[in-house]
Design brief:
The structure holds 2 protein chains of 2 kinds.
Chain A lengths: L3 E4 L2 E4 L5 E7 L5 E7 L5 E9 L2 E4 L6 E3 L9 E3 L8 E8 L11 E2 L3 E5 L1
Parallel strand pairs in A: 2-11
Antiparallel strand pairs in A: 1-3, 3-8, 4-5, 4-9, 5-6, 7-8, 9-10, 9-11
Chain B lengths: L3 E2 L4 E5 L4 E3 L2 E2 L5 E8 L5 E7 L5 E3 L5 E5 L4 E6 L8 E9 L7 E2 L3 E6 L1
Parallel strand pairs in B: 2-12
Antiparallel strand pairs in B: 1-4, 3-9, 5-6, 5-10, 7-8, 8-9, 10-11, 10-12
Classes of the chains: A mainly beta, B mainly beta.
């Protein structure tokens, strides 16, 4: 079945360490997204990529970095510059072709990062 | 900038009762509107979407939503709630031109009592 795989499901990090969250999709979607979710704040966009080798900052990109070397993969690195990294991170993808699929995000199951 | 308001943070209903979750959006253009549901510790699942046409849209799990342009609203409804509907519900909006960026509301947590 097609879908989005995020790993790891749970991750613990010491302060000052960088950590990379994996996101892989086999939906052949062009666009991929990273959202951060905190209680009571909904989903906030960190970075998104509409095509390989190109990505744009979202609303809260500071302290994060991404790459898009392959269509299927969009890893997120939470750097030590992120002041409050403990959160639930969601990866999503979207097809950019056709009205029926456009704008519809498909989500992974999420990764919970805890900074100790 | 586009924004979405879900005024109810937490709603409790009895099983079998009807449900309405409120969603209001800002911005003048014709929006693309969505409702997603999230179980604890999981990703989001699409319930239904509105792009154009009939303003009453049907979704999965017996949910429906009505787009009312005059009220800038897209409320989610279900005639009879089941205990398994307990979850968090998110409304989201997108627009032509910013189509790749959806804006989400802060969510409404639904509790169902037996």
């Amino acid at each position: 079945d097609g879908g989005i795989t995020q790993s790891p499901k749970y991750l613990f990090r010491k302060e000052g360490q960088n950590v990379t969250l994996s996101c892989e999709q086999n939906l052949n979607h062009d666009a991929m997204y990273w959202y951060r979710q905190d209680p009571g704040q909904g989903l906030r966009l960190i970075y998104y990529s509409q095509i390989v080798n190109d990505f744009q900052k979202g609303d809260i990109a500071e302290g994060y970095s991404v790459s898009r070397e392959k269509k299927e993969s969009f890893p997120l690195t939470v750097t030590s510059a992120q002041k409050n990294p403990t959160a639930f991170y969601l990866c999503a993808s979207m097809t950019t072709g056709g009205i029926s699929g456009a704008n519809v995000l498909t989500f992974g199951a999420g990764s919970r990062l805890t900074v100790l | 900038a586009q924004s979405v308001t879900q005024p109810d943070i937490h709603i409790t209903v009895s099983e079998g009762a009807s449900l309405e979750l409120r969603c209001n959006y800002s911005y003048g253009a014709t929006p693309y509107l969505f409702w997603y549901v999230q179980s604890p510790g999981q990703g989001l699942q699409l319930l239904l979407k509105y792009f154009s046409g009939d303003t009453l849209v049907q979704g999965i799990k017996g949910f429906e939503a009505e787009f009312k342009r005059s009220q800038s609203s897209f409320n989610l409804r279900k005639p009879s709630v089941h205990w398994s509907d307990a979850a968090e519900y998110f409304c989201a909006v997108g627009y032509t031109g910013t189509a790749s960026k959806l804006t989400f509301g802060t969510g409404t947590r639904l509790q169902v009592t037996l």
